[in-house]
Amino acid sequence: MKNLLIVMVVVQSLWAGAAVLHLAAEWRLNDLDAPGAAAIYPWDYKYGYIVGASNVLHKNFPDAASRFESVLSRAPRHVGALINLAGVYAQTGDKVSAQRALIRALALSPSDPKVMRNLKILRGKMAGKYEFVMVPS
Amino acid sequence: MIAALLFLSALVFIPTAVPFVNAHDLPKTALVGALAVAAWIHLYIRASGKGGSRSALTFPLICPIAVFIFLSALSVINAVNIHYFFYSLGAMLCGFSFFWYGINIRAHRDAPLLLAPVVMVVAYAATPWLGIVTTFGNQERGSAMVVLSVGIAAFYLVGKDRDLTLQISRTKRAVFLLLCLALIWFLYQAGMRSAMAGLVIGLALFIVANAPTRELKIMTVMALAVVVMMIVSSVRPIFPSYFTLDAERPAIWAEALRLAQGEPLGIGLGQWRIYALAWINIPDLGAGYWRELHNDYLQLLVEAGPLALAAWCYLLWRVIFPVPSGARGLLAIGLIAVTVNAFFLFPFQLPVEAAWFWLVAGVYTGTKAER
Questions:
Q1: ipTM (interface pTM)
Q2: Digits of tens for pLDDT over chain A (137 positions)?
Q3: Model pTM?
Q4: Which of A96, B76, B149, B285 is 20 to 30 Å from B98 at the Cα level?
């Protein structure tokens, strides 16, 4: 009985510890420090996504791409991350990768209007001028 | 002391309830997790106490709970995000911690501790009339907390007898019925339809358990239904529209059912929020992020499969039914209300609300076991 209780204390402590880390990350995010939040609690894709979106705004495309890739490794169905990743690839001239990301998004969500719009743009319907719809974090 | 903390901790989650301390805007999971650890340490201290302080601990329903946890844990095979899987599993264990703690603390013997939920109900009830309904926060949270508090508040009224096998006196029963009707009214005003329906059903089952004759059971339930209908229809001209669902719910549920058909072991605990990310831009599904499915049973079916859902339903059935007569049955009202509420919202996905449910369920089970 006592052993069971000790096991439960340990299990609950681990879970409570994760919850405390999450709380600390949320506090960092409250202070608009998304990278800090992502460093404290890297398991939540949300922080990486916010940092990626922030990198896009600052035109730091290589870092943004790696952030979105990281988000997709944790949340493979994140259509927002796929759209933004395609946008980043398109901005850096990698149209093949951009198209691949959008087709992946379309497979997940066939009637997504933002994906379809970006795919049309990418396929040259706007004379090579890219105006991607970005998904806010 | 720990029991007092457990009960009082609910207050800091509610705006306006406790001045200067407001955990309403913070993630509450950390606090609930810390309290769960404290609960287990408390039980450990009790189990290893010397002399007269030592008391035996009981862990009823450990077999069905273990089966349910095992079946849920099997879904790890399909989990895309292992972190969310373990997080959800931990939340589940946290709930059961409070269940066993509720059974073993015998909280009902310390009736003053139960005053806190009464204050909480008052704080909740006061918010709309003070014009600060927006600070109510999340209706999902509010509805789960309120329906649980109903049972505890009423339980407090009769719990002072210190003899839970007593039948409730007529006066107390009248006070209790009025309290419940007032809260049904409040839930209606706050737009918490499923919680209101749950409370009505809970109250009806309690009445059935307590009425001495079959005719009286039927009559009281019918009278309750009539009163509720009169309250609702007399004040709301848009009565029929009140019972419509948001358009998104059926669409999301249909997607979820399609998902469940292909995964007999489920997509993995805690994975729904990952799957729902694919539909954030779909207008038919609300063009928003439905992090929770708004039906806890369906979400469990999707995440852990039909066997886990069956085990969960069996567990809830064993915990709640049969509803005993007398003072002991009062707590069942809130529990039934939460389980009905879970058909349209997600009280079991919210750690604080789930912890409350299981704590009350523990006290309820503990009182049922006492004869």
A1: 0.85
A2: 778 888 888 988 998 888 888 888 888 888 889 999 999 998 889 999 999 999 999 999 999 999 999 999 999 999 999 999 999 999 998 888 999 999 999 999 998 999 999 998 888 754 555 566 677 76
A3: 0.83
A4: B76
Helix H or strand E encompassing B369: helix B351-369
> Shortest CA distance to A98 belongs to which of A70, A71, A68?
A68
Tokens of B318: 């064993």
Q: What is the DSSP letter of A121?
A: I
- The 10 Å Cβ neighbour count of residue B9 is 19
**Å from A14 to nearest chain B CA?**
8
Q: A102 contacts in B (CB within 8 Å)?
A: none
B158: left (phi over 0), alpha (psi -120 to 50) or beta: alpha
Structure tokens at B144: 């789960």
SS3 B161: coil
**Would you call A77 an interface residue with chain B, using a CB distance cutoff of 8 Å?**
yes
Cα–Cα separations (whole angstroms), residue A22 to B157, B268, B328: 39, 21, 39
| Dihedral sign of CA atoms A7, A13, A16, A18 in order | negative
